[in-house]
Design a protein that fits this description.
heterodimer; A: alpha/beta; TIM Barrel; 8-stranded parallel beta barrel; globular; B: alpha/beta; Rossmann fold; 8-stranded mixed β-sheet; 4-stranded mixed β-sheet
């Protein structure tokens, strides 16, 4: 049967890896290509790169990064961050990315999901959804967690699935960077609602949090960043721990 | 020389990267003459079956592929297109492997089938030489080719389906060897050196 996946995430700015807490206060953690290679060798199942560069050079540097990463790793990788058109997606896939992650752009133009999945296949389209608890329940936020929307978290998950997204990358802003565990309750509701794979993101602080997300929420993959960057948790050790606890893992 | 067929069906850069790692001489082409003059042919493919078949026909490649006598490797959608028919876009395919590509049942399993899954292969398969039986490979597919007499490897996801097929000089793999770590690179090396 299909193995559960461990996915290190690299937040990239100008080709360097940075990691923040609750989407602000960025720290530089090294070269993106070097770190990608380290994760590949440590047994990562795939990688996600989120580009947070805000300059006009952004597109060019992201394409260059994709090309360089593709030369050194032999596992799939997703790129995201400010992708807003079919043309952007095509350029990134042609440069060697396997999937693109779409966030603010699909909230503003949901048809982009339909168009992209028809043109490139659902497997290439990841819907990244950032949610945050409000008085009105879990709502969708865009622009790197800075801008609230009227969208209700669960109904947006269902909609992206129906429009043809191949996966949901769900980040709980309230949990991100806290190291207190994933938002198991909400993830569990998403897993029960949609028919596509769900990736948990935001809050991993120790091995037990991954086990909890796989066992209790039934997610297909777990994503983490800082925990791996700073070598607090080795990917292979984590995977062995999960396998010992009867999670199907590729070792 | 190995030809990678470029018929506009998505990402071929990953296949290029893998062949460069193996120091294999290759050309990326959709030219019939160049394909016919190559010793090995790789036929990648991601995306949707009916539009891929349209591209193959519009590039004049239908007969070129069908009549190919050289070792030929279809990857992912490239393997599905070797079959008679695909339910994706309800399209007639190349008709080399007598099988029909079908969609996974989303009432039973998540679709797409995305990630690493174990592959068990027939003994003696050249593609899998010196690869441990039961190794994991990376898949990303919503459609599958059911097990049939040309299946050389199987994978399980709700049902057993073809992870690899072989008929004469035609080989196909449903997974992405170029994205499957060291086992995948070994498989590509086997295709280049042993098939």
């Amino acid at each position: 049967m299909l193995a559960k996946r461990i996915i290190p995430c690299l937040d990239v700015k100008d080709g360097r890896v940075v990691k923040g807490t609750k989407f602000v206060n960025l720290h530089d953690s090294g070269s993106a290509v070097e770190l990608a290679y380290r994760y590949y060798k440590e047994g990562a199942d795939e990688l996600v790169f989120l580009d947070i560069t805000a300059t006009e050079e952004k597109r060019k540097t992201l394409i260059e990064l994709v090309k360089e990463v593709g030369r050194v790793i032999r596992i799939p990788f997703t790129v995201g961050g400010g992708i807003s058109s079919i043309n952007d997606i095509e350029n990134l896939l042609n440069a060697g990315a396997d999937k693109v992650s779409l966030n603010s752009a699909i909230v503003q133009n949901p048809n982009l999901i339909d168009e992209a999945s028809k043109k490139f296949g659902s497997q290439a389209v990841v819907a990244a959804i950032d949610i945050k608890k409000t008085n009105g329940g879990q709502k969708v936020y865009i622009k790197g967690g800075k801008q609230p929307t009227a969208l209700e978290g669960l109904s947006w998950c269902k909609e992206v699935c129906e429009r043809g997204a191949g996966e949901i990358l769900l980040t709980s802003i309230d949990h991100d960077g806290t190291r207190q565990g994933y938002n198991v309750e909400f993830l569990s509701a998403v897993v029960n609602l949609v028919t596509i794979p769900v990736i948990a993101s935001g809050g991993a602080g120790k091995k037990e949090h991954f086990l909890e997300a796989f066992e209790k929420a039934g997610v297909d993959a777990c994503l983490a960043a800082g925990l791996f960057h700073y070598k607090e948790l080795n990917i292979l050790e984590l995977k062995k721990y999960l396998a010992d606890n009867n999670i199907r893992i590729r070792l | 020389m190995t030809a990678i067929i470029d018929y506009g069906a998505g990402n071929i850069q990953s296949v290029i990267n893998a062949l460069e790692e193996l120091n294999v001489k290759f050309i990326v082409t959709n030219n019939a003459k160049e394909i016919n003059e190559s010793k090995k042919i790789i036929f990648p493919g991601v995306g949707e079956a009916s539009s891929a078949m349209n591209n193959i026909r519009s590039h004049g490649l239908f007969e070129v592929i069908k009549n190919c006598k050289k070792p030929f490797l279809g990857i992912c959608l490239g393997m599905q297109l070797l079959c008679d028919y695909s339910e994706e876009g309800n399209v007639e395919c190349l008709g080399i492997i007598p099988a029909v590509s079908k969609k996974f049942n989303s009432a039973k399993v998540k679709v797409p089938h995305m990630g690493w899954n174990k592959v068990s292969f027939n003994k003696g398969s050249k593609l899998f030489e010196e690869i441990e039986n039961g190794s994991s490979f990376y898949f990303a597919n919503s459609f599958y080719v059911p097990g049939n007499k040309f299946s050389s490897a199987l994978c399980n996801y709700d049902i057993d389906f073809s992870a690899a097929v072989q008929k004469e000089n035609f080989y196909g793999v449903q997974f992405h060897p170029e994205k499957s770590g060291e086992a995948g690179i070994k498989l590509l090396k086997n295709f280049i050196e042993k098939c």
